[in-house]
Amino acid sequence: MPTMGVNHASEVYLDFCGCIVKVVSTDQKCMENARRDFSHFVCSQPPGAHSVTIRLHRESPPPAPAQARRVFRTRQAVCYEHERIRYVDYRGTALVRYDFDSEEAVVLSLDDDILHEVSYLVALSRVGELLDKKGIHRIHSLAVSVNGSAAICLLPMGGGKTTLALELVKENDCLLLSDEIAAIDKQLRVLPFPLRIGVRAAESIPQDTPARYLRPYRTISFGSKTLIDLEYFAEKIGRKPAALRMVLLGERTAAGKPGCRKASKLMGLYQVLKHIIFAYQLPRTRAYILRYERGYMRALPKIFLSRIVTGLRIAQSVECYRFRLTEHPRENAKVLATFMRERTG
């Protein structure tokens, strides 16, 4: 593994609901990406210990050690282990060395975009497990608040969460908690968890967005995107937890008008449990979660039980609605904002 060399290493600290991540690199572009991707979570150096350390190196990745044994593969990488260290080889374009005991990652790559994406996934994967242990569970959904009450909208990957979010922030009283991840605590509050916003099509970028808030980005699996910094929407980002009052089950239709109608408790229970128990479609990878050791295996039942209890409480105490979306994003957002005002005012 590399040394930091003669260049001075920069650090940035990120506070994810009490889980502190320290990112370290001598490469200024890596540090800029970390600050911009997680701008809501940037904090000053905490007085106590941090939870996770991620060291980023713009260097040619070596192969995994010859003595490391192959444990499994993902769509993007092959995972190896040796002496309780996980090595994740992205087909020679990047190598990650993760020590689960010290919660420290070393990421090496010469490719800017791969270094960027891999470090992002490492952070969210490890933070997700640590939050689970605190009883804070994440759901892949859009989360917004109106009048201090929160709603989460469940849509499939590519189902239009970001497009809907960009329209909702145009509503005066609507605040964005996250366009991708809803973090829900034991009190069934939705915690602010806003990340950088990624759009695939140029027409999805809000008109007149200054270029300084935009970054081109090539992902490993989903092609090219444009990232929009949260700073551009600073006044429309929710900063406080909001009580969860509504779960919306998104449904696409090519005809008719957008609208909301009551969903059955059974339908709501199924969708909520599917998303919360199995972390359905969350931006993470099992390369930095799944392991075959006693401590992890003992912790899993507690995590799953906590997710089940939270899911059952949501399905039992929060109203669920079927939200019909059309091909007109502005209409969808207006209908949803009005619906929320009527039930939270």
On the 0-100 scale, what is the average pLDDT?
90
Number of domains: 3
Structural class: alpha+beta
Please indicate the percent range of residues in DSSP E strands (runs of 2 or more).
25-35%
The top level CATH class name of the largest domain: Alpha Beta
What does this molecule look like?
By secondary structure, the chain is of the alpha+beta class. It folds into 3 domains: 124 residues, no CATH class; 166 residues, Alpha-Beta Complex (Phosphoenolpyruvate Carboxykinase, domain 3), CATH 3.90.228.20; 41 residues, no CATH class. Helices cover 27% and strands 32% of the residues. The protein is built from 6 helices and 21 strands. The strands form 3 sheets. Strands 3-1-2-4-9-8-7-6-5 form a 9-stranded mixed sheet, with helices on one face. Strands 10, 11, 12, 13, 14, 15, 19, 20 and 21 form a 9-stranded mixed sheet that branches. Helix 1 crosses helix 2 and helix 3 packs across helix 6. The longest helix has 24 residues. 40% of the residues are buried. The model has no long low-confidence stretch (mean pLDDT 90).
